[in-house]
Amino acid sequence: MKLNGIKLSHRKNTENCETVAAPCPERVVISMSQHIGAPAEPRVKVGDTVKVGTVIGDADTNMTCPVHASVSGRVAKIGELLLPNGKTCKTVEIEADGLQTPDEQLAPPVITDKQSLAAAVRASGCCGMGGAGFPTHVKLAFDETKTHIDTLIINAAECEPYITSDYRELMENTDGVIGGMKLVREVLGIERVCIGIEENKPKAIKIFRDKLSGEKGFEVMKLRSSYPQGAEKVIAYNATGRIISEGKLTSDFGIIVLNASTVGMINRYAETGMPFTSRRVTVDGSAVRKPCNISAPIGTPIIDLLKEADTDTDNMKRLIAGGPMMGISLYDPTLPLLKTTNAFLAFLSEAEKVDPTPCIRCGRCIEACPLGLMPREFERAYDKQDRETLNRLRINLCMNCGSCSYVCPAKRPLAEKNQLAKGLAMSRK
Amino acid sequence: MKEYTVSPSPHLRSGASTTMIMFHVILATIPAMAASAVFFGWRALTLIGFCAVSAMAWERLSNLIMKRPDSTDDLSALVTGILLAFNLPVTLPLWCAAIGTFVAIVIVKQLFGGIGQNFANPAIVGRIVLMLSFTGRMTSWVIPNGLDAVSSATPLVSGNASYFDLFIGRCGGCLGETSAAAILLGGIYLTAVRVITLHAPLAFIGTVYAISAVTGRDPVYQILSGGLMLGAVFMATDYVTTPITKKGRVIFGIGCGAVTCVIRFWCNAPEGVSYSILLMNIVTPYIDMFTQKKAFGGIYRRNKKEASQ
């Protein structure tokens, strides 16, 4: 069985742009909620001196990871921030001294077994760097008595247009990514490691095939260039043929999926002890005169990054965090960089005013859905407020990849309605 | 501080539009139009043009009377007009054609809610109504190549045309249905631009081939004569009135083929393509109901009893 997917123009304008380091910002605003999971609580007070890598926030639950200072300097404010997803969270604002002194206490962790690996990954503040941002240590802390993990999939599909931050990680930190793969493999005793790269990145495929050619148990999987090839269920199926059924995690089927940049991050922490304090983002779009990949401290205002890429901020009409298919459009360019953001796209044109025409039942949305759902039927059921049909057709499985809206010739807001329908189906009455 | 308008994802949309799809269909009808002009003369083009224009006029008029937004810009009425004309003999008076487009556009399409809402193919119903109302005029076939209005039987009835004549369309019949070659060309184009999938046409033609062969008739002759090719390529692929999934489209095609054969071989009617399509249009919602797709990774329980146990 071949899963559905859609063809998008790749627009990987920045694929050959080597990462440039952004100058140290004067002030960073570090959100205590960097990813899905519980938000952290600030562990510093106003006036405290912090260095790069100092823990500034953490929580007692396991479903979160600590937040570290990304610059050295003085805590100026504990504030609040309205995140683009509509949630409010606490922030720690740090005035940078510009020296970027690393914390003296940072030391490479001792990783001997599964527990110490998960603890080290948690301590590194690492979360999925591909967009969704699931805390990585939770993925690694599976229950050994219930499941046996035999496959580690490194997700380097990067199927969204424009974004090249994972690709640059593959090219610039090849050994780091491979080191991370080996580390996780050895500690967890995984038989097969499979790195999935879309065929529109032939250089990355070649370099990894060359480096891993003699290694047993490692495999470079060339993926068809089709969106959404990097969705967890899709890449897991393409790598192993296993279908992740609803309500289950990939680990229930013996699979762990990690993003390529995440693995590089894990390796960096294991080698140097430097936690997740900065990341690479792609800055591109029609308003960007100098599309590039920038490495910047977490919490850097987006506007600084846009300026670094010589963006026409005066005429910019639209700003998207993430890719054009699943990214969130932002209302404010002073928002800070989060751990999960892999790209900022700035456009000169306003969001297209969609004027939907009646559905002509062409079936393209059904042909496009990677998970075999029927967006057109979802829309009809939602309009009738029909929970039963929505549940019968498995609205809960929709991952909001946007393929249905993309292909619809009648320009119907299918993906948008799916989200509303999901809420309706889950509500009691 | 400058703020920006936000919108939900996806922020990208494909260039596909209903108008573009209809435009592709119109382009795909050009070979058959050309063939009809070659074999039946200029009058064929007049009739096609009249049907197209009158269909658009009825559409606009319905919009005005029903106080709906102008829907002529999606070109679907133009397609309906052309396809209806393809189902008419070249000698049909224009006023009859106008009745046909009225039935197709106003009664079948607009009264049911406009594009996307009609349960049956407008052009098919238009043809059937004309066929039943003006049987004489609708069956006065003309021998192609200039011989004016000499009545002749269609090859499906006479059964004596050569494969070659049937393939290129040099035989009596409706405007757009005689030339299998021209229709095929249109079908190939529509498949190439991904407007249609071949599920329904292949199932339709395949079923007719199989049943004809099994019952000892000439399958190739059955496929090339009558309105089968036109029906399979242009009517059984209409989005609105055929099933939405590929599996459903195969079932639809098989059903069309079976009903066509039953009518052609064992009923007191010469041609069954339009009736078969109409019949299958009517069962399309049921086909859709039984061919809903299973979600990837969805867990389905056989019945509620099992679920509660």
Short descriptors:
heterodimer, A: 429 residues, alpha/beta, Rossmann fold, six-stranded mixed β-sheet, 17 strands, 20% strand, globular, B: 309 residues, mainly alpha, 15 helices, 1% strand
Could you explain how this protein is built, in words?
The complex is a heterodimer of chains A (429) and B (309). With 429 residues, chain A is an alpha/beta fold. Chain A has helices at 114-123, 136-140, 165-172, 174-188, 202-212, 232-240, 260-272, 302-308, 364-368, 375-383, 387-392, 403-407, 414-426; strands at residues 20-21, 27-31, 41-42, 49-50, 55-58, 67-68, 73-82, 88-96, 151-156, 192-198, 218-223, 255-259, 278-284, 292-297, 318-321, 328-330, 343-347. Among the domains of chain A are: 114-272, 3-Layer(aba) Sandwich (Rossmann fold), CATH 3.40.50.11540; 364-426, no CATH class. Helix content of chain A is 27%, strand content 20%. In chain A, the strands form 4 sheets. Chain A has a 6-stranded mixed beta sheet, sandwiched between helices. Chain A has a 4-stranded antiparallel beta sheet with strand order 2-8-7-4, with no helix packed on it. In chain A, strands 11-10-9-12 form a 4-stranded parallel beta sheet, with helices on both faces. In chain A, strand 5 and strand 6 (67-68) form a beta hairpin. In chain A, helix 4 crosses helix 7 (260-272) and helix 10 (375-383) crosses helix 13 (414-426). The radius of gyration of chain A is 21 Å and the shape is globular. With 309 residues, chain B is mainly α. Chain B is 61% helix and 1% strand. Chain B contains 15 helices and 2 strands. In chain B, helix 1 (18-40) runs antiparallel to helix 2. Chain B is globular, with a radius of gyration of 21 Å.
